[in-house]
Amino acid sequence: MSQKTKIAITGASGRMGQMLIKSVLETDSAELSGVIERAGHDWVGQDVGTAMGGKALGVLVSEDTAQVIAAADVVIDFTAPCATLGFAKAAADSGTAHVIGTTGLSDRDIADLNALAERTAIVRAGNMSLGVNLLVQLTKKVAAALGEDFDIEVVEAHHHHKVDAPSGTALMLGEAAAEGRGVNLADVSDRGRDGITGARKRGDIGFAVVRGGDIVGEHDVMFAAPGERVVLRHIATDRKVFSRGAITAALWAAKQKPGAYDMMDVLGL
């Protein structure tokens, strides 16, 4: 019998944290080794199973980041940028693989994570679903095939609790479109339209954002030219698509050498 991969989860009380915990428990080849919450949170010291409203699991919610991460083979983290950097440092110190689904990371944050990846395996992705990562590949191919007569718009929709915009997935898609065209997204990104903005600049990649209700995640990449449009779309209706992808990434990352990876590496795309 092969040994199970020990997985720790950060942000245990959050919607994604609880979904990740459930997904680990449903995975035969994985073991929930620990869970983390911020200092002073009501869940700290409680059994995570009972804190979630179910039966005890024998795993206490901890605020001791270093201890929990050191005891795991891999830590999965869907929290906030400032917290993610702290978890990444602890993971690098202990040689624990780190799977990051946190969005809203700055260029400086990403540079810091890439430096820490010299000491442990880090898998970072704005979206971990298989469907979205296939959409990224399709976006790159279509952008490469269609010239600047086709305007590119990335349209995304999420629930009203989401704090960052555009979403990490939308930015992944924008990067894929820019790569397909051989340009730098920062040079062609159009992310703010309000008032008299003037005509659209040829070659720009636009972003439009919707926030409302309990939308899990919807992303369209529109290629619009006079007389025709090509629309690539992904709709997520259940957060399990993200947690399942994160578990797949965790099982893969636990076996990798130090380095910066993404879901394309995990899925072999």
What is the compact description of this entry?
With 269 residues, the protein is α/β, with parallel strands linked by helices.
Total domains, how many?
2
Share of helix, binned: 25-40%
> Helices and strands, in N-to-C order?
EHEHEHEHEHEHEHHEEEEHEH
Low-confidence stretches: none
* Beta-strand percent range: 15-25%
Briefly note the CATH topology name of the largest domain: Rossmann fold
- Could you describe the largest sheet, including whether it forms a barrel? 7 strands, parallel
Distance between the termini: 30 Å
Number of helices: 10
Q: Name the CATH superfamily classification of the largest domain.
A: NAD(P)-binding Rossmann-like Domain
Q: Using only CA atoms, what is the Rg?
A: 20 Å
Mean pLDDT: 95
| Count of individual beta strands | 12
Q: Which architecture of the largest domain would the CATH scheme give at its second level? A: 3-Layer(aba) Sandwich
What is the C-level CATH assignment of the largest domain? Alpha Beta
Shape: elongated
* Secondary structure category: alpha/beta
Strand order, largest beta sheet: 3-2-1-4-5-6-12
Summarize the structure in words.
The active site is at 158 (proton donor/acceptor), 162 (proton donor). With 269 residues, this protein is α/β, with parallel strands linked by helices. It has two domains: 5-124 and 239-267, NAD(P)-binding Rossmann-like Domain (Rossmann fold); 130-236, Dihydrodipicolinate Reductase, domain 2 (2-Layer Sandwich), CATH 3.30.360.10. 36% of the residues lie in helices and 24% in strands. It has a seven-stranded parallel sheet, with helices on both faces. A five-stranded mixed sheet has the order 8-9-7-10-11. Helix 1 (15-25) crosses helix 9 (240-253), helix 4 (81-94) runs parallel beside helix 5 and helix 6 (130-145) runs parallel beside helix 7. The protein is elongated and about 60 Å long. The two termini are 30 Å apart. The model has no long low-confidence stretch (mean pLDDT 95).
